[in-house]
């Protein structure tokens, strides 16, 4: 064995070294952060060594006199490559190999090796078998880093179906290079260099090469069959952390968890499912209901205005803190003709459409694959909902959302839920203005200037930060009500946008009035968020005052879709522990938002401390005194036994907290609910229409 080099490789190696060092120096702040300077210095030093290593790998070449030794060295490198790949991918999440338990390290190694064996079986080329999979691994790691930074939850398989929405949302966040991206990129450069170094190494003998490729393919097929066709792997404890994906990604490896999630994309029939038994299952509870509608004439039915307020929540449910001003003063003051409480949502930090799915359908995300988006994955035909129920009663049905109509596939899904009209931002603002705003990389100054030129004084109230304000949004709701063309009642479902994350950028058109005064440090993201909630509270007051002066009976229901994604340290100070160490009860707190059902006429006041979003539309129908489906009656009775069913677990009528791994007296009820949901959402041919629709009764 000897080491050689040439002038060409020497120059190329020096160029690569200098380029990497320039990149490193420009982005040195990603390593030398004030919070952990010592670790940052060590990582920065390792990054410098990476630059040296990459340059040296290009410059120098190992030559073996005995070609068999060269092949052996190449094969050793091939079987070491997955370890390098794991290091690269986990660097993006600031996780190191020694953080992984041995069983998880082995599972990761097998997962990465399978991809390399697959490419080798196809190409018969060792260099390509290392290079091509690692390009894919790098793309995944970068995507996962960005998604986790933006929304606080990792990248899961069903996110591929939400790429359009994700692109719109990502444009509103500040992007930067952290040390994970830098280190991962440097490792990827090293992998590329070494892959090209061994590009000429091949198995020459045809029979040995064919044998090696067949064995590689057989390994891939056998492991995939074992994983997707049996429960051997999950029974061994290697499965996603369904209730906290981020914890699972950090604990046992991000790419491994991504692949583990692919096993659960397809929704199979629940064990023991029989469409012929669905009506009986529903009636088992619905028959216990003594509910009778009090309003049957269309002309007496109240208008219903439903507002799902973006990221609206009271974060004191996670732990007490004080602020300089009250940020929910009006909401807290409402008591007369109001039903209020805590609503447990299916998502945290992001996933708005999943929250509206639960409210509108009465179905639960807890029975679907973790990380899935229902609107993108599962709704491709008409399904029963609150919208179809109100339509059967004679309501006009309009959805309003002051953002792009393509988001979360709403323009396709809303008609399938039963909406007659969908008013999006494209209907509120001239398309040319929207196009110019997008082309300017979301320049708020330009956006506001164009709005003022087009709409004059009306534009003064349009934006808070870069989003349509709640106040202007509610004016659109009022216009829909005022422009109704018949004497029938209206149903409006509104998803607001004002409070959407991120909260890192300061805006000239938004004054942050709220400051947290009782915590150990300043949390800028939380302060901006709470300031937005104060503005939202003021806008809600305007909406209520408008409908107080409307002659027709009207009900307004308002709730938050999920808690915001602000500083992790903020939540950890509230809970007094790491967010990865929360108890089931503490974790449930992160899924709570406020809700209120208010009427401009006399209704019985009530307080619900615990209720999940899937029950809210049935409670709304009951409050309005309207006729409801057998499924709605079933849900009302189920809520008496299990008031909370969400992504974390469930809470029973006595306030006991459970996860779905617990075998309890409620297990059978949950299994029945899952079968009923499957019939409503997936079994188009076997759906029992009379259970879910008034028109079939």
In short:
It contains 28 helices and 15 strands.
Annotated CATH homologous superfamily of the largest domain: Alkaline Phosphatase, subunit A
Main beta sheet, described?
A: 8 strands, mixed
Cα-based radius of gyration, to the nearest Å: 28 Å
Indicate the CATH topology of the largest domain.
Answer: Alkaline Phosphatase, subunit A
**Which overall shape is indicated by the principal axes computed on the Cα atoms?**
globular
The secondary structure category is alpha/beta
Overall description:
The protein has 28 helices and 15 strands. The protein has 697 residues and is α/β, with parallel strands linked by helices. It has three domains: 1-63, no CATH class; 66-264, no CATH class; 284-394 and 469-696, 3-Layer(aba) Sandwich (Alkaline Phosphatase, subunit A). Helix 2 (37-59) runs parallel beside helix 7 (179-197) and helix 3 (67-91) runs antiparallel to helix 7.
